[in-house]
Design a protein that fits this description.
With about 250 residues, this protein is α/β, with parallel strands linked by helices. The chain contains 9 helices and 11 strands.
């Protein structure tokens, strides 16, 4: 079952084309890294796919009714701001709203989903803390946990590891791999190409208003693509611990 299908999707903002004719599908079991230079339109693509902004073309998510879409795809936007002084547990429980009927109380299945999400993000000890009093990195992890508690077949996360320390960056990307291993999928926009190489099964390179490459990390992060779209050279090697990618220098 295809979890996301885009066909000839195009977006213009303030009369300026952002990207055009993007077609792609996301299947179960994938961690898809959406990569590209600043301003390439990665955030816009994810928002358009969800039907949050006007777009030309077709998105299988955008045509869904909001409640149906919320059960199919969870969305973590780039803005990691918590507006209300609720506990971490309450914040994460908000991820269960799409599964509750009108006036329905949180049940055992919902509490179990919240417990799993807190454990995945290492937040059990912080569950009764006020979310707005946490550090920026802890708040980000709480918002990721809220997204995970939604327990949807597809997760779309816009730069979720920005601002996290290295250990929690790795743990979050490993969590996404665990989700994919369950037959679900994650699409994550990411600037850290080293983590993308190690944890994403597929990369989509968006640049110049189009999808420039789509495939495995080895297929996408070629010397030509790195030079033409990122302006860098890099060292790419296979090790017993997995692939290693290290940018080396700016290429003019």
């Amino acid at each position: 079952m295809t979890l996301l299908h885009l066909r000839d999707l195009s977006v213009s903002l303030r009369n300026r084309p952002v990207f055009r004719d993007v077609s792609l599908s996301v299947e179960p079991g994938q961690v898809v890294g959406l990569i590209g230079p600043n301003g390439a339109g990665k955030t816009t693509l994810m928002r358009a796919a969800l039907g949050l902004i006007p777009a030309q073309g077709n998105s299988s998510l955008a045509v869904m009714k909001p409640r149906v879409r919320a059960r199919h795809a969870a969305w973590m936007p780039q803005n990691h701001e918590i507006a209300w002084p609720v506990t971490v547990e309450v914040l994460v429980t908000l991820g269960r709203i799409p599964h509750l009927g009108a006036g329905q109380a949180v049940g055992a299945a919902d509490r179990a989903a919240v417990d799993r999400a807190l454990a995945q993000m290492g937040l059990e000890a912080l569950r009764h803390r006020t979310a707005t009093r946490l550090s920026g990195g802890e708040q980000t992890r709480a918002l990721i946990a809220r997204t995970l508690a939604q327990e949807t077949p597809l997760v779309l996360a816009d730069e979720p590891i920005a601002g996290l320390d290295p250990a929690h960056q790795i743990a979050t990307m490993q969590c996404f791999q665990d989700i994919a291993a369950q037959g679900k999928s994650v699409m994550v926009s990411i600037h850290d190409l080293g983590l993308a190489v190690r944890h994403c099964s597929r990369l989509i390179l968006l640049a110049g208003g189009r999808v420039q490459a789509d495939g495995t990390p080895e297929q996408v992060l070629t010397p030509d693509n790195l030079r033409d779209h990122f302006g860098i050279s890099a060292h790419f090697a296979q090790t017993p611990q997995g692939p290693v990618f290290q940018p080396l220098e700016v290429v003019r």
